[in-house]
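REQUEST FORM: STRUCTURE PREDICTION
Request ID: SP-0412
Submitted by: Lab K.M.
Chain count: 1
Length (residues): 187
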Amino acid sequence: MIFPCVDIHTHNKSRKDAIINIYPHEQLIEGAYHSVGIHPWHTSNIDSTTIENLKTLAANPQVIAIGETGIDTLKGASINKQIDIFRLHVALSEQHKKPLIIHCVKAFNDIIDLKKELSPSMPWIIHGFRGKPQLAQQLINQGFYISLGEHFNPQTAAIIPTNRLLFETDESTLDINTIIEKIKSTL
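STATUS: Completed
RESULT:
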């Protein structure tokens, strides 16, 4: 396992047994693990303060992953700006030796191409994956980890090797053990 907790991505700030996603303008929560990043939906109005806050938080030991970052073709700034911001996150992931948590909507070819180009040493994790088995297999073949949450494709869950499968609550009200049991029941 690449993380000290099973739930690798949540937005529930009351959790102590998960990696809590925060944004650069937010404070760390005492005694909790975090990931920090600029979500693709929030890439339109990035200023230097946001970037400096991101860099500062990325170095903090309570932050054990970088992201949620990524590319979303349906929402956010232009794809080029999203890619530039994504590259910054990759650099921080590599600099601080922390895995990268990725939000991706209709941009998997771009993400795969960037992984090939940048050859990261740190794990890249596609979070909240709901795609088809063929896409999951393509991602696995390129070295990605795949995180599943409450909503997932059972056929896809069945083909993900256990050493590449992660779990998350994201914005779900279900607890992580219920989500894991739901996923495992389809295997």
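NOTES: The chain has a mean pLDDT of 96.
Reviewed by: T.R.
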